[in-house]
């Protein structure tokens, strides 16, 4: 039997450490990533389990986890019980750990936040961090109220430049927060804004190019504009339809000059690509579980 064990929230809790990052991020992934992970697994028949006590001899285990560098002993123990194990590794934005010994416990690994050492690894596939739970897919492309929207923390010079360059383009929507995950819009508000927006600028994250913003834009039928740093998205998603810029001044020109027909064409292109990507990822996961 295939069983799914979501383990990101199970971290060693140090009561003397109020800034326990592993615990904070583990709960964050549990709160915000489940809908995305369940979607990419929706062609697999599995039983959700609450803890390792529900694992029986011979089970095929899919474990969703973060801070995996701290859990080698757990994986080694589970490997003795399960016939096969697969890991969906969330987090690890910094990519600072050598995870080879951890990943060796698994038949195959899917992970977010790709880096050069993972792009061409036969045992590891990188996939997008996805949209936050609560984002509702927009199926119909319709005329939209806002030319562009930005919701997030302007913590880098690039983001300040984005807001400066695009500030004169109206109508638009901007919701700036002072700190990550604080003062954010709720999912209903996010859905309403994204469903009413044509272009979504997607600046790089604090450490890594990827942010949820890109995937929320795709899920909502918006046109993402990404920074072309290191050609990251072309490496991760060859032949993707995203608009890529080196400076946010270029995005300003695009938003101002594109007419409605060109916008609608690009929206449909992004929508088609996104649906095809999700379907291909689902099929790949299904095949891997049956082949291994």
Molecular structure report:
With 292 residues, the chain is α/β, with parallel strands linked by helices. It has 2 domains: 2-127, Rossmann fold (3-Layer(aba) Sandwich), CATH 3.40.50; 146-274, Rossmann fold (3-Layer(aba) Sandwich), CATH 3.40.50.2000. The chain is 38% helix and 18% strand. The chain has 11 helices and 11 strands. It has helices at residues 21-32, 34-40, 72-81, 100-103, 116-119, 157-166, 187-194, 212-219, 232-236, 248-257, 260-291; strands spanning 2-6, 47-49, 60-65, 84-89, 108-111, 124-126, 146-152, 172-176, 197-202, 223-227, 243-245. The protein has a 6-stranded parallel β-sheet, with no helix packed on it. It has a 5-stranded parallel β-sheet with strand order 8-7-9-10-11. Strand 4, helix 4 (100-103) and strand 5 form a beta-alpha-beta unit. Helix 6 packs parallel to helix 10. The two termini are 14 Å apart.
Oligomeric state: single chain
The proportion of strand residues reads 15-25%
Characterize the main sheet: 6 strands, parallel
The ordered string of helix (H) and strand (E) elements is EHHEEHEHEHEEHEHEHEHEHH
Poorly predicted regions: none
Overall residue-averaged pLDDT value:
93
Query: Termini separation (Å)?
Result: 14 Å
Alpha plus pi helix count: 11
CATH architecture of the largest domain: 3-Layer(aba) Sandwich
Task: Report the principal-axis shape.
Answer: elongated
Return the CATH topology of the largest domain. Answer: Rossmann fold
**Share in helix:** 25-40%
Largest sheet, spatial ordering of strands: 2-1-3-4-5-6
Total count of domains: 2
| CATH class assignment of the largest domain | Alpha Beta
Any idea what the radius of gyration is? 20 Å
Class of secondary structure makeup: alpha/beta
Number of strands: 11
